[in-house]
């Protein structure tokens, strides 16, 4: 907006474009990432970046990373999407409407309910609405506005949630009562091991390590879940816990779902512990019968400190001399029978479970105190964003990309969506690059053959792995830093995010190439997905949308399948709110209900389309404003808005002043602030702690103020600025209300 205003002031015309490829003669404006401008003389084009025309210093907004997710769920809100209103239930989003009524102009979110009834929701109440997201793909029916079904559903889910919270709390209490081994505090050898870590720990890593060590030193068995994206440093945390157990003379079992992961962990543990007196062994199908027999005997005698393996280590012939710690990687990937075996191994032993499926922070906070969770959300320092490019399928480009990666000693993933196309593609690639070593991996291969190919790639016996999206999760190969995704238009956004995440695990710059047959041959939805992946960086909302859907899967894994029906009934965010309240009630914490003040003042207060043209962005700002908790947060949002869209128009200034008044009302437990017949009226809650003595003094000093028969405080208005007058009165009331 600032740029368009600037160009208009110079008297030039311009075109707004969605892509640099759509350029036309003259000035074209489009959004993208460009650190600085440059000239392209051959094409007679000049590219100007933001820093080339901006003169004022950019305001940096600091906010918690967890603040983004609930907001960004509105990023892709479109007409027809389902919304959940806390009081009225599930309805369909119709649009954002600007309405003038009784001299008041404002924006309203329009939600349609069963039978075509519509709810016009003032934007200052947007925090009462969530975008409907269920864990499964079930589409719920709309509720009737004013009907009883929603309240009944909410009550049923509330009971189920209370039961879940109670069960979790009972399990937690039972575990605290169980006797276990209390590990000794870390000694000088442990800190020597810590010092040998070649990278600085992230704050999340450090916090998780401290939480695990504290658990291990307690005299009852640990059962902690460590969640975090792949490559965020969970393995180092697990290795430190294992080393601590070994220092106390205990054995450690590391259980993983696949043979290839067992081998990978074995290599990682061995490399990390090579300078310390720790014996490590791996028990998997890659070991001969003779080797397995030898490992089992040494394990029984206590000669092996750390054993890493698949469900093979759950079998009856595996006997430990003194097992002290069990580390489980991706527990949800084990079958029911394997989990039953696990229970026998778990009794009175410290257990650390690792999950690469991230979970929502809101769930983490909801379960605090009834489930031991550690969260790693920050990537390691020096991690660079993956350079992502969109291109047509081009043999010369493919040849150049693969050769460049192999020449720098790296490896390449070449992903194709369909198994049947892989043999032909393999022949084409081998002919194109005869000197390159190719491997093939897909789900229709035998498990043993697939694992052998993966292991060859892991050991760098293969340069390029031609595969399906079977590599979407599991492997961590820091040496693979280029991924080529053929027919990228056939993958979903979450799949593309996951696939791209296979690379970029080291200090090297990583590259992702999305190959498509051409713009005319791919659907509009696919174009939108690809544009999202190209445009969005880690700090933007689209990235978080893909991540949000993945986190819901993580939530399902923690809460269990029995809860997915309840989540489908009320939506994920509503379910979490109920869970949080249930946990607080069980823990005996006070649940003071926040009041929702209603402000009706005859002023224009909204975000006009001329200021923020994108409807979704307006909704996101409205929702963030409705969730503001204090003055500081409100000021930050004001700065951000000015920084992004320029000086606030009068109607937006009014909106911020209204919200400022709303914060006062919430603090003083004032339920309503409105004007009528030349009077400003204030309605107090029954529980508002008013000092009678101070109120008498307050009124005696202001003879024109009065209480009407309804108990409302009335203040006469004499052609004054209503907002200024209301603020002046509320500030004066501070002396009367004991908060």
Give the helices and strands, then pairings.
Blueprint: H1 2-9, E1 14-16, E2 27-29, E3 38-40, E4 45-47, H2 50-53, H3 68-72, E5 82-85, E6 89-101, E7 104-112, E8 118-122, E9 129-131, H4 149-177, H5 188-195, H6 203-217, E10 223-228, H7 234-247, E11 251-255, H8 259-272, E12 280-283, H9 289-301, E13 306-309, E14 323-329, H10 336-346, E15 350-355, H11 361-366, E16 372-376, E17 387-392, H12 395-407, E18 411-415, H13 422-432, E19 438-441, H14 447-458, E20 464-467, E21 480-486, H15 493-500, E22 511-516, H16 524-535, H17 541-559, H18 564-570, H19 572-586, E23 598-600, H20 615-626, H21 631-645, H22 650-667, E24 670-676, E25 679-684, H23 692-700, E26 706-707, E27 713-716, H24 722-733
Parallel strand pairs: 1-2, 10-15, 10-16, 11-13, 11-14, 12-13, 14-15, 17-22, 18-20, 18-21, 19-20, 21-22, 23-24
Antiparallel strand pairs: 3-4, 5-6, 5-9, 6-7, 7-8, 24-25, 25-27, 26-27
Helix pairs in contact: 4-18, 4-19, 5-7, 6-7, 8-14, 18-19, 22-24
Main location: cytoplasm
Protein name: Transcription-repair-coupling factor
Subcellular location: Cytoplasm
